[in-house]
Amino acid sequence: MSIDKQDVQKIAHLARLALTEEDAVQYQHSLSSVLSLVEQMQSVDTDGVAPLSNPLEMTQRLREDEVTEGNQRDAFLANAPQTEAGLFLVPQVIE
């Protein structure tokens, strides 16, 4: 798929970008090459190929989920101008 200079200028206008004529020609070539790569990738037969999240058969080493800090809610609420039932009270913004 090829894109012409008028399409590039239209896209630039919609994106509110100012392009010179030289920039438009450069972007025309770049966008055309990207679109041709996408067409090439879409033409590949992928039937029967399972999707991979990672090409390597490895497992992620995870640390144990341990609490490292105690509950400090009362200390944090002490600085709040208004609280109720352990929650911050804030002014209503949306009616």
From TrEMBL:
SUPFAM superfamilies: Glu-tRNAGln amidotransferase C subunit
Keywords: ATP-binding, Ligase, Nucleotide-binding, Protein biosynthesis
InterPro entries recorded: Asp/Glu-ADT_sf_sub_c, GatC
Lineage top rank: taxon: Bacteria
Main EC class the enzyme belongs to: ligase
TM regions (residue ranges): none
Catalyzed reactions: L-aspartyl-tRNA(Asn) + L-glutamine + ATP + H2O = L-asparaginyl-tRNA(Asn) + L-glutamate + ADP + phosphate + 2 H(+); L-glutamyl-tRNA(Gln) + L-glutamine + ATP + H2O = L-glutaminyl-tRNA(Gln) + L-glutamate + ADP + phosphate + H(+)
Cell division in keyword set: no
Enzyme Commission number, as recorded: 6.3.5.-
Stored PANTHER family: GLUTAMYL-TRNA(GLN) AMIDOTRANSFERASE SUBUNIT C, MITOCHONDRIAL
Subunit structure: Heterotrimer of A, B and C subunits.
Similarity section: Belongs to the GatC family.
Role of this protein: Allows the formation of correctly charged Asn-tRNA(Asn) or Gln-tRNA(Gln) through the transamidation of misacylated Asp-tRNA(Asn) or Glu-tRNA(Gln) in organisms which lack either or both of asparaginyl-tRNA or glutaminyl-tRNA synthetases. The reaction takes place in the presence of glutamine and ATP through an activated phospho-Asp-tRNA(Asn) or phospho-Glu-tRNA(Gln).
Protein name: Aspartyl/glutamyl-tRNA(Asn/Gln) amidotransferase subunit C
